[in-house]
Specification:
By secondary structure, the chain is of the alpha/beta class. The chain contains 14 helices and 17 strands. It has a six-stranded mixed beta sheet, sandwiched between helices. It has a five-stranded parallel beta sheet with strand order 14-15-16-12-17, with helices on both faces. Helix 3 packs across helix 4 and helix 10 packs parallel to helix 12.
């Protein structure tokens, strides 16, 4: 088929889980076969929902989504469902195909190389770490070689080598691809356009070109719109003052005032809606637990995974107030498992000073109660604070008056991350442990988060595969688990 064929079209699509709060309004865009584009937008704007509409798991309230007949579509899910965790790697990938595939094993081995993962075909899915399971989900989508590939944050949980493998695969991929990601360098290596989902207007704007150039173009457009709005607002204010003056004079001056008010209404209509999704979270501080001193955390050994089995390795780390440590190592070495044991106080060779409050940011958000409302979760941590104070903290993380009424389970992954940081601010921990805190985060928020961690005055232990983020934080200790 010709490469200029439209493979996917959204025509006047409107959608919302709640009729009073639409996510999409009369969205229009089309994709040519073979194009590779980025889907941009604020956390919670509806990017994942747009994917669900494309694959048909959600249906628009108005308008239509059309795919070329017989188009195959695949997307990398966020989590492996419980029923699949008992499957072997081979049986898991067999589910990607409707019919039996006779050369399945070599196909699996090839695609596992793409995501840079060693996974014996007889091994059960449940025995893999969270990062490894994320790679399996990505590989599950890639192995289908679909006509339309939808990837939602595919670089999360990938180390640098894993990202390089995926980048090469997508550069060579001859079919159509839409990617949600906050990794600008990754996106710029293979995408040739942007679908920009505006969280305020609920529309999608389509741009063609180099990713970095498109982002600059969007930034310049926002600056122009804001400058024009400021000019119009000044003219409106001046005319209002004059209209009020003339209205009080009576006689024919009232007619002058009426005409001026009509002009004011025209100027108001000329103003452009300011793009609220370009807001960045407010600068914040995570207060440290008061009156802490001495050795907060001591690690003399770490349990890591070697060839699928846990082994203890000697280590030497002592953290005091204001000291920061970075744990590095490839996926599957057991970083998250060790942090879970550390926080659960079951990690051997580890001592935490009694009375220390531990603030733990888990990459899978399993510390959040999805049935609880956002506001109730904040009250639970800081019951002594007033509603006004709690709302102010939430607003700093873009959790507005509507969002804080929502159940946590209804939030986007990025919003769950922002809520987790709001909780840490209220908790005032003495020991802060963070596992991949930039996953799902809007790139505008990442420097603000790095600044908060840099200024944190308790003891800090971080796991992160985001090099630009890590560079912004001065570490006193770096422990490479692969070298132990």
């Amino acid at each position: 088929m010709a490469n200029d064929e439209t493979i996917l079209r959204f025509k006047d699509v409107s959608f919302g889980y709640d009729h009073n709060h639409p996510l999409l309004k009369e969205v229009n865009f089309s994709l040519r076969r073979g194009s590779k584009v980025t889907l941009m937008g604020q956390n919670g704007a509806g990017k994942t929902t747009l994917f669900e509409l494309a694959i048909g798991t959600q249906r628009p309230e108005e308008g239509g989504v059309s795919l070329v007949p017989n188009t195959t579509v695949a997307t990398a899910k966020q989590v492996i469902v419980p029923g699949e965790r008992e499957l072997t790697v081979r049986d898991f990938f067999a589910r990607a195909f409707r019919e039996k595939v006779y050369d399945l094993d070599p196909k699996i081995e090839t695609i596992l190389e793409v995501v840079h993962l060693e996974a014996p075909l007889e091994r059960k899915i449940k025995t893999f770490s969270g990062g490894q399971q994320a790679r399996l989900l990505l590989a599950f989508a890639l192995i289908q070689n679909p006509d339309l590939l939808l990837l939602d944050e595919p670089t999360n949980n990938l180390d640098a080598e894993g990202i390089d493998h995926l980048k090469k695969f997508l550069i060579d991929y001859s079919k159509t691809c839409i990617v949600i990601s906050h990794d600008a360098d990754f996106l710029n290596s293979f995408t040739s356009g942007v679908l920009y989902l505006d969280a305020f207007t609920k529309h999608v704007e389509q741009y063609v070109g180099n990713y970095f150039d498109v982002v600059k173009e969007i930034t310049r457009r926002i600056e122009r719109e804001q400058s024009e709005n400021a000019r119009l607002q000044k003219e409106i204010s001046d005319r209002k003052d004059k209209a009020n003056f003339f209205a009080q004079k009576g006689g024919h001056m009232r007619d002058v005032a009426r005409k001026m008010k009509e002009k004011i209404d025209e100027l108001e209509e000329e103003k452009v809606d300011v793009r609220r999704e370009d807001k960045t979270i407010r600068r914040f501080t995570i207060p440290a637990q008061a009156d802490i001193g001495g050795e907060i955390l001591n690690i003399s050994s770490v349990q890591i995974i070697r060839k699928g089995k846990p082994v203890a390795r000697p280590a030497s780390l002592a953290l005091r107030r204001k000291e920061k440590a970075l744990f590095t190592g490839p996926n599957g070495i057991g970083k998250t498992s060790y942090l879970n044991a550390l926080v659960g106080k079951t990690a051997k060779g580890t001592t935490i000073q009694p009375g220390i409050r531990i603030g733990y940011y888990r990459q899978d958000f399993s510390m959040l109660d999805y049935a609880q409302s956002v506001y109730a979760s904040l009250v639970q941590i800081a019951p002594e604070m007033s509603e006004e104070e709690l709302r102010s903290v939430a607003a700093g993380f873009l959790l507005n008056s509507e969002i804080i009424k929502s159940k946590i389970g209804a939030l986007s992954e990025g919003q769950k991350g922002l809520l987790s940081f709001a909780q840490l601010v209220l908790m005032k921990p003495g020991l802060l442990i963070l596992d991949e805190p930039t996953n799902h985060m809007n790139f505008r928020h990442i420097p603000v988060i790095a600044e908060a961690l840099k200024n944190y005055e308790g003891a800090l232990l971080l796991v992160s595969h985001a090099p630009d983020f890590v560079k912004k934080i001065p570490f006193d200790h770096i422990i490479d688990l692969a070298a132990l």
